[in-house]
Amino acid sequence: MNKKKAELCNVSSFPGGAHAVNADVQSGAIAPHEFSMRPVVEIDRYLLKWLLKAMGAPPVRFLLWNGEEVSGGMDPCVARVFIADRAALLRLIANPDLHFGDLYESGRVRVEGDLVEFLECVYHASAAVPPRGLAQRLISRTRPARPNTLTGSRSNIHRHYDIGNDFYRLWLDEQMVYTCAYFASPGATLEQAQVAKMDHVCRKLRLHPGERVVEAGCGWGSLARHMARHYGVKIRAYNISHEQIVYARERAKAEGLEGLVEYVEDDYRNISGEFDAFVSVGMLEHVGVEHYQELGDVIHQCLKVGGRGLIHSIGRNRPKPMNAWIEKRIFPGAYPATLAEMMQIFEPSEFSVLDVENLRLHYARTLEHWLWRFEKASDRVMAMFDVSFVRAWRLYLAGSIAAFRVGDMQLFQILFASRDNNDVPWTRNHLYTATERTES
Amino acid sequence: MNKKKAELCNVSSFPGGAHAVNADVQSGAIAPHEFSMRPVVEIDRYLLKWLLKAMGAPPVRFLLWNGEEVSGGMDPCVARVFIADRAALLRLIANPDLHFGDLYESGRVRVEGDLVEFLECVYHASAAVPPRGLAQRLISRTRPARPNTLTGSRSNIHRHYDIGNDFYRLWLDEQMVYTCAYFASPGATLEQAQVAKMDHVCRKLRLHPGERVVEAGCGWGSLARHMARHYGVKIRAYNISHEQIVYARERAKAEGLEGLVEYVEDDYRNISGEFDAFVSVGMLEHVGVEHYQELGDVIHQCLKVGGRGLIHSIGRNRPKPMNAWIEKRIFPGAYPATLAEMMQIFEPSEFSVLDVENLRLHYARTLEHWLWRFEKASDRVMAMFDVSFVRAWRLYLAGSIAAFRVGDMQLFQILFASRDNNDVPWTRNHLYTATERTES
Question: CB-based contact (8 Å) between B353 and chain A?
Fold first, then answer.
């Protein structure tokens, strides 16, 4: 048991991990001819030492444009951060949460060493710094998240999910599932783990053939097709990403599932109909806490008496804004909420929370697979976009691995039911024994 | 599967259920010679009809002191509530949540019919009434809960748990476990279900031989002894009920477990030492939300790096004060919190919530067992106390069954760990397969 666990938790045992993160080392190693003649002055060193202290003194060193190293004296050193010029240094000092990403993307800041390991030790060190200290407040300044009104959501979602199905196809699994997988067994492939996740969700919901399910935020439609094919239910699946809906419809048609799955290009706030079950996997991050009660009302209105539902979402241990660069560059309008915040969905309609499962390490593992595949396809990504895009997405994937590994982010699956629903299983044994698939 | 579930959920299939609740019918049926000659006037009828409406029109009838019936016209009628005099009627109208219990206890209000079924349909009907309506606010007035300061807690706990071990021995299981059991298999006895609950808690905590565990609120000490005997851990268990501590110490000595279990007669706020795991089963109800952060600090301070813990507590779907009569008569200072409120324990120290399980129906079943045993022993309870005590405890047990059945109360088991604890199992499969007991 312990051996199995160690194997699973141990980062270096992941077949793709080392390769993936080494890619940055290979492209990012600093050669002496890259150093410039511009001098480093005392204030540069002072500012960097202040930054290291504010970050909780992680075991990293800075390598300045003239080849000079600045360190906080922590050894062994996990990585070196190359800063190409003084302007980059000043931007980094002014708002590291935001500008580290910007500068990394443009190549004016580079990381020599394992990128994931570097980010992990930085996150780990800063977690130990009192969050309300002046230094932390200065280095963790946030941007106001872009609003998730009906129009705002469309724009926010468009900017991430509509950048091209061909791009996502390069590094997602064959079913195009872009949410945390479930590694039920240690040696599972990404493909197997995504199917296992879909089954885990379906078993938690205890779907019966002929039931009607509504899905909010269906991505490329994999879960809806899986439910229809294996559990014999009828699904109406909502999404405001045009590219994803087009793909989902085509694929359902090609697989002969049109009669069971209906993809609707619309906002969750416009869900209509009456359903036995509600499901949402990886949408809540884009809803915004100020809309949670609205989401709860939608769920309450569309569920039949005795209905049940499941929400799967990234979360936090305590309230904290999204990293400023991620919000700006990768996920506009996104916010990972705490469990307490998520309860605003359930409390007004008195839903009973039946089961919460935290799959944090599964998301780290999922992201390791994605990053590995992404790096393998980086030349093709480069051809589709440009080098700064590759660097930005590398940082986003690597940073997410690190955040899940150090416990900065969580992944919650919340199963709930109407207050008066007594048709609930007495134990969760059914999740871990025979399959409940109908194979219809 | 469906058959098994139906059997489990169906109230009438419980062997003791019918007997237990019939006891009240047998002792409570109203004979014609009990009616008085005092007249009923129009205002009496009007007030009762208003009350029925405010209660959401449950299918019950009132039987007034002169033998006259007042009903809301709902059929079939589940039970008749006998009101012995006008003063009782006026008190019932003035504050039913508080005075129904008082009047039931004194016999001036009696229920003819199945007491649990009566309460269940009343709770069910009132749940459908808008909680902020005038009528609901009038009939659900609450008392301020008695404070849980160090002194207040001692007094509150003393009033419930120190009323005599001999009394509790009459209707609890052999191990004296006074918290929700876990009916892992449908035909389990109360004794088996309490052992299964203790194992379920221990497996969630993944106890290893030699580890140190601290328990807050240990009751009669059953869980601590179980952990020591079957999981080979060392436990320091806290409780401020003197009677319970005396019993727990004697029993541990008799069972040769003194070297592994230390019972401390003190408040959870005074916990000292360093431990691998924290556990608290059925204490949080007595802590008070205003002390949750204090409890979280205590847990944070006493847990080693990488520690984990479990809190098992009655809860709610949304914030709602304890029933006024229960707070006054049975559980002074008690409050069942929502999950969101409970997060005040975990957020400040950034504990990761790993698993939440709702065992609501298990508590209804546990209480059915207790009520059945209580009724079997009611003559002996009467001899120990008096008839009003028997009636009060009958109402408390029956009311609790009803509250768990209709979803007015929940039972949450929350497993948590330090934010940076990556030594967590990948799935919950281990809870449902081979035992992890060491049988040391």
Answer: yes
